[in-house]
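Lecture notes, part 5. Sequence design as translation. It can be helpful to think of inverse folding as translation between two languages: the language of shapes and the language of residues. The source text, in structure tokens, appears below.
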């Protein structure tokens, strides 16, 4: 007996995600998280085993919704003219293993990557960090592109961790979210706190925040802060 195929994706939903993923790439530029063609955003197609991701090696100012690539959860292209991002396998691995994740972002943003280059987690020493990350921003293993090792490193580090961001050692940042916008927000916040904590380090040793205070801040931010219906950090 063969298993039934996954439900087909709604073309209107895919078209809307192509637009959204294209637009969110401009946020990576706006917040100065990327240079040249580095970095990528993807979004899961709800109800289908598919996701939308940026094509490989295309200038940010030439990205269009129609240039976005639709892949299955093995990272195989199912719709698109161009080759998908070289990080597609890592995004696919995350979607296969973390079913609540609806968006993934990757950048080599400067300050966060400087922590990654040292293999050092960003300690939770700011209330904004406790809000958004609920803990330190952890470091994932050194892994080379080309197989599942980057995806596996992301999932193994973030599974059971509050942080929606991981610093892959000697590489850069991967973030996850309930949707692609939440993952972009985590990438923006990750760079912001990596920068601030780095600057603080130049002047002395930042003061730790009690675990109980981190818990209270994180819980309040997830449940009370903002407007009803807004996505929370991991959005899940
Ligand atoms: Zn990279």
């Amino acid at each position: 007996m063969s298993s039934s195929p996954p439900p087909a994706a709604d073309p209107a939903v895919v078209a809307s995600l192509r637009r959204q993923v294209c637009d969110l790439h401009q946020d990576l530029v706006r917040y100065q998280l990327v240079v040249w063609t580095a970095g990528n955003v993807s979004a899961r197609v709800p109800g289908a085993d598919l996701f939308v991701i940026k094509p490989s090696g295309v200038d940010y100012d030439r990205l269009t919704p129609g240039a976005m690539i639709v892949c299955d959860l093995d990272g195989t292209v199912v719709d698109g003219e161009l080759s998908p991002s070289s990080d597609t396998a890592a995004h696919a691995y995350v979607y296969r293993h973390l079913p609540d994740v609806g968006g993934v972002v990757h950048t080599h943003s400067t300050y966060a990557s400087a922590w990654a280059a040292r293999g050092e987690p960003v300690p939770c020493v700011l209330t904004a960090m406790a809000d958004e990350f609920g803990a330190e921003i952890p470091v994932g293993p050194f892994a080379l592109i080309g197989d599942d090792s980057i995806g596996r490193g992301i999932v193994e580090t973030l599974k059971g961790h509050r942080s929606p961001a991981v610093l892959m050692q000697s590489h850069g940042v991967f973030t996850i979210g309930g949707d692609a916008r939440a993952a972009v927000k985590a990438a923006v916040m990750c760079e912001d706190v990596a920068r601030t904590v780095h600057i603080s380090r130049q002047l002395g040793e930042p003061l730790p925040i009690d675990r109980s205070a981190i818990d209270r801040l994180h819980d309040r931010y997830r449940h009370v802060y903002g407007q009803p219906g807004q996505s929370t950090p991991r959005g899940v």
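The translated text above is only one of many valid answers, since several sequences can fold into similar shapes. The chain is about 40% helix and 15% strand.
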